[in-house]
Amino acid sequence: MNAASHEDHTKATPAIESTHPAIVEFFRRQVNGAVSDVERAVRLYYAVRDGIRYDPYQIDLTLGGMKASATLEARRGWCVSKAILLAAGCRSFGIPAVLGFADVRNHLSTARLRERMGCDVFFWHGYTEMWLEGKWVKATPAFNIELCERFRLLPLEFDGRSDSIYHPFDAEGNRHMEYVRDRGTYLDLPLDEIVRTFRNEYGFSRGSSGLESASFDEDVERESDAVIRRNRQ
């Protein structure tokens, strides 16, 4: 593919705000000194993975709540909003990027979240695909390193050349993530489709998950401590 074929993949969109001043400044600092797109992409990935805490309780299913600048300001996000932010960072440096989606069966989540969702399938799990060295590469910046350590997850690393997707097992050998449906890639956030699925499958409204008053961090700490105690018995 030539550069012209990826013109749309580098443009700013209502959600992927690659020209937003705060986005440009934040990512400029992250890639200072990088000399190649691969090196820039790797630094962008870790800036989003670890600089933005994963929090699936604070889901705001509106464009205002999902756009890249909102996630950057909150310093928290879930898989879709973090993927949007990473795509914005890539496009801000002219690296072609799209949003990828899949349905995944999550074998490790909090009891509160499983009860709210009513199932163990995460519909419209989001990740980022980048065009690097002549091919599309998947990157999944959802789980920050602190969360992985607390939940005994294997952190997803990214080298800019190989796909970075969820591990099927955790660090203890327990089932972790299972990909059950590929929903393809999009130039911008398919918000209406996501809202429709979440409403039908989870009963979520456009603006809220209904978990905003709860603390994901506290639930993770409580449940991970319980696992540690059981393993010591």
Compact overview of the structure:
The chain has about 230 residues and is of the alpha+beta class.
Strand content: 15-25%
CATH fold-level label: C8orf32 fold
Largest sheet: 4 strands, antiparallel
Radius of gyration: 17 Å
Can you describe this structure?
The chain is α+β, with helices and mostly antiparallel strands and 233 residues long. It has one domain (7-223): C8orf32 fold. It is 40% helix and 18% strand. The chain is built from 9 helices and 6 strands. The chain has helices at 21-30, 37-51, 63-66, 68-74, 79-92, 111-117, 145-151, 191-202, 216-232, and strands spanning 53-54, 76-77, 97-106, 121-132, 135-139, 177-186. The strands form 2 sheets. A 4-stranded antiparallel beta sheet has the order 5-4-3-6. The longest helix has 17 residues, at 216-232. It starts with 20 loop residues before the first helix and ends with a helix. The relative contact order is 0.18. The mean pLDDT is 89.
Summarize this structure as a short list of keywords or feature phrases.
9 helices; four-stranded antiparallel sheet; alpha+beta; 233 residues; two-stranded parallel ribbon; C8orf32 fold
Helices and strands, with pairings:
Blueprint: H1 21-30, H2 37-51, E1 53-54, H3 63-66, H4 68-74, E2 76-77, H5 79-92, E3 97-106, H6 111-117, E4 121-132, E5 135-139, H7 145-151, E6 177-186, H8 191-202, H9 216-232
Parallel strand pairs: 1-2
Antiparallel strand pairs: 3-4, 3-6, 4-5
